[in-house]
From TrEMBL, chains A, B:
Entry membrane topology: Multi-pass membrane protein
Native source organism of the sequence: Brassica cretica (Mustard)
Location of region: Disordered: 1-21
Zinc listed as a keyword: no
Gene Ontology molecular function terms on file: UDP-N-acetylglucosamine-dolichyl-phosphate N-acetylglucosaminephosphotransferase activity
Entry keyword set: Membrane, Transferase, Transmembrane, Transmembrane helix
Protein name, per record: UDP-N-acetylglucosamine--dolichyl-phosphate N-acetylglucosaminephosphotransferase
Transmembrane segments: 38-58, 70-92, 121-139, 146-167, 179-201, 222-240, 246-266, 278-299, 311-335, 393-415
GO biological process: one example: dolichol-linked oligosaccharide biosynthetic process
Predominant location category: membrane
InterPro entries in alphabetical order: Glycosyl_transferase_4, GPT
Length: 420, 420
């Protein structure tokens, strides 16, 4: 309500676009989003959530004082799922009006490649997540709860990250600045972090160090900050296929949930269990709201998620790992992202030339993708296992992500007792 | 770094605009912002801050344990001032590239009315504010500090409000939705609020109520939520002149600072003084970053602030008032906004027709503004006191704001003892 003529929604009428060549959508107002792929989401969520729900409700005897808030949180997350499902078509109309759209490069040369796909819909997911996470406090925490400090710091960090991600999507911040943004967003969490700052020295190394537990103090906080920066950026650069950004997030989120419930089930230490419950409170809403957007983002994508989503998802999982005190485990869940980061290092560091996009080459005739020489996991996978369609490649990479998580559980199982 | 061709920065080249009629700026890249009006800012900040600094440093004997963090916060705010001053020209180029600009309606018909003015620069102020407020924790709070809960909740609320304000600026949310956004943003604060929920019954009314202190419990929280919604929206609708949005904010912020330091000076209760110091920690960075943007936003505006700024400023002051426990005083500082709200009610409620903009009428020949029949303080002031230039009207309204704050101090002085 300020003293100016807004140009946002009237851009089209004031600056008429040249006649569209082949674009399917003429204007934002007669725009209709493809319906959500609920069948796919049903299959994916059954695969991902069934083990977690089984462990929580039947396998372990989680006492009701802890189970009640987890189930309330799950209920709120379910509401968040449906709200996100309803909100995305509305938000898609708004972002299109602001000319926030992209063309799908992996479909260039086909009619689908000329469709304007609404961009940065992660903002809808982020806002619903925040509202669910905030309202949940009402049901769980009393005002003098010790957890409230860390919970609010977590919310401040995640919210700041969403804000910076959305600013990046809108204003297109240079990527070297972008890499640094998570370190600002992680500050509230670091300041409020009151948990342990010790690491347990692996047993085979105890004789070399001379102690079993090492208190890192402020250095531990630096480690936390680096972890948050890594998680956030690593989701952002392992991307480029329809559904891959959200797909990897929901797979890792499912692994986090299973890990948390296993730890809760195996322990009797109240504080330890609280830390893992805390992690669940953040991961369940992430899972639910992400699945809702995946219904629109699965191949062929009707909406794009934007950096808003990738940085939000990365930061939320980092926070869940830090406050649940299982950051080493989290890093093994992130194995494909670590691989992708290592493969990307030469280009990120500027040793090898880095183009604007590092995507595979799409052949419109066959509809298959071929790996290029750019150092990403997507390209290397294609170079090793041959040409694939976008959808099948995405599924392969998600299965690989799930295998990395399974490997992590195996590793924990076999090393338990010997390693720590 | 995702699978699409970004359209943000390439819009101009892909969809060539029709030849600009008389626009002064051809493209975002050869854009140069008018230099900041540092002389004006020097005068305004001397007028506003001198009393506060005198009271803090000389008049009252504030003990060093409280003075030290206040001065550290002031130092950080000063750094924030210079960072904002440097950041705004950069951010202005970025928002212009995204076609986020407006034309100054109060200059329509003059060459200045055809200049594209970068919009929503409040985002730069908001981000610098958040970083200053976050870094400050490092110098003040220990990890087990009781204040940390409320401070982080305050940060989460303000951050969420900036996010929603920026989303509104970018996507142009319908105004009825907009009115509700602050109630979501205020939730983290309400959840974490651990302060008193009692009100002191005014002495003349004690005999009617039969008690001196009334505990409102949850109703008090509802009152806090309504206060935040009111402050946020009332700054947003008392706008429309170059410099008015920031001007009113810095005047009120100065009053808040003076009030806080007077309360600290007059009391010996540690918790009471802490609450007011807390309020200072939020208000000083708001003051400093706002003054930096005012250097660009003062008449004639080189940048516009956007809803991002107005909602951020309103929410920050509401939070400062709530956590400093002086919400009634805050409402008297907001007297012009209350008047403007009451004048606007018929149009906001839909009883009287409400146009898109409710601005005075500008006469390009004389350069003067004439009041229209729309119910805003700006129009009513012009109808009562006659036609004025935009700059002089803004100064008049800011003086009126300062008088309202002075009136509040007088009222407190005379009613003290009798009323409460």
């Amino acid at each position: 309500m300020t003293a100016r003529k807004r140009t946002s929604s009237v851009t089209n009428s004031e600056n008429p676009l040249p006649p569209p060549k082949k674009t399917t959508i003429a204007s934002a107002d007669d725009f209709h989003l493809a319906p959500p792929k609920l069948g796919v989401i049903f299959v994916i969520s059954s695969l991902l959530c069934s083990l977690y729900l089984y462990l929580l409700c039947f396998h372990y005897n989680v006492d009701s004082e802890l189970k009640r808030p987890i189930l309330i949180n799950a209920g709120l997350s379910l509401v968040g799922f449906f709200v996100t499902l309803k909100l995305i078509p509305v938000a898609a109309r708004y972002v299109l009006r602001r000319n926030m759209f992209g063309f799908d490069i992996n479909k260039r040369g086909t009619p689908q490649g000329d469709v304007k796909v609404p961009e940065s819909l992660g903002i809808a997911v982020g806002i619903v997540f925040l509202i669910v996470a905030i309202i949940f406090q009402f049901f769980n925490f009393t005002e003098d709860s010790l957890w409230l400090v860390e919970y609010n710091a977590a919310l401040a960090s995640i919210c700041f990250m969403i804000l910076l991600g959305f600013v990046d999507d809108v204003l297109d911040v240079p990527w070297r600045v972008k890499l640094l943004l998570p370190s600002f967003a992680t500050l509230p969490l670091l300041m409020a972090y009151a948990g342990h700052t010790t690491i347990v020295i692996p047993k085979p190394l105890v004789s070399y160090f001379g102690l079993e537990i090492l208190d890192l103090g402020r250095i531990y906080k630096l480690y936390m900050a680096l972890l948050a920066v890594f998680c956030t950026n690593s989701i952002n650069i392992h991307a480029g296929l329809n559904g891959l950004e959200i797909g990897q997030t929901v797979v890792i989120a499912a692994a986090i949930l299973v890990h948390n419930v296993m730890q809760i089930g195996a322990s009797v230490d109240t504080e330890f269990r609280q830390a893992h419950a805390f992690s669940i409170y953040l991961t369940q809403p992430l899972m639910a709201t992400s699945l809702a957007m995946l219904a629109y983002n699965w191949y062929p994508s009707a909406v794009f998620v934007g950096d808003t989503y990738t940085v939000f998802a990365g930061m939320t999982m980092a926070v869940a790992g830090i406050l649940g005190h299982f950051s080493e485990t989290l890093l093994i869940f992130f194995l494909p992202q670590v691989l992708n980061f290592l493969l990307s290092l030469p280009q990120l560091a500027g040793i090898v030339k880095c183009p604007r996009h590092r995507l595979p080459k799409f052949d419109p005739a066959t509809g298959l993708l071929t790996g290029t020489k750019d150092g990403t996991l997507v390209n290397v996978y294609l170079r090793i296992f041959g040409r694939k369609s976008e959808k099948s490649l995405c599924i392969h990479l998600l299965v690989f992500q799930a295998l990395a998580c399974a490997f992590c559980f195996l590793l924990r199982h076999f090393l338990a007792g010997w390693y720590k």
